[in-house]
Design a protein that fits this description.
This protein is an all-beta fold. Helix content is 0%, strand content 51%.
Length: 116
C-alpha cells in the first residue's frame, strides 16, 4: 500500500508563503491526491485536491491563495500557500483516495502555525 510523508510545515508569520510537499512510496496514478487540514476543535476539511488531467478543486476558504500541484514522475504533490493568516493554523494532511474508492490513505500530517 502506498504510504505518504508530508514535509514543509512549521511556524510561519502572517502573510508568509510556505510550500508543503507530500511524497508517496509508490505510484499515485490511480489516486485522487489532496490536502486536508484540521484545526483544534474543528472537523477535517478539504484544502485542495488534484485529479487526472490536472483538474483541481479547492476549499471555499482558499480564495486563490493556495495552489496544488502534482508530479507523476516523482510521485509527489505540493501545496503552495500564500498570504497565510492565523486562521490557517492547523495540521495539514496529505491524502490519496483511489478512483475506485478501494483505498483511502493518509499521511501523518504536518503542523502549520501562523503567528507573529
Amino acid at each position: 500500500q502506498v504510504q505518504l510523508v508530508e514535509s514543509g510545515g512549521g511556524l510561519v508569520q502572517p502573510g508568509g508563503s510556505p510550500r508543503l510537499s507530500c511524497e508517496a512510496s509508490g505510484s499515485i496514478f490511480d489516486y485522487v491526491m489532496g490536502w486536508y487540514r484540521q484545526a483544534p476543535g474543528n472537523e477535517r476539511e478539504l484544502v485542495a485536491a488534484i485529479f487526472r488531467g490536472n483538474v483541481k478543486k479547492y476549499g471555499d476558504f482558499v480564495r486563490d491563495r493556495f495552489i496544488i500541484s502534482k508530479e507523476i514522475t516523482t510521485n509527489t504533490i505540493a501545496l503552495q500557500m500564500n498570504n497565510l493568516r492565523p486562521e490557517d493554523t492547523a495540521i495539514y494532511y496529505c491524502n490519496a483516495r483511489a478512483y475506485d474508492n478501494s483505498r483511502d490513505i493518509w499521511g501523518q500530517g504536518t503542523q502549520v502555525t501562523v503567528s507573529a
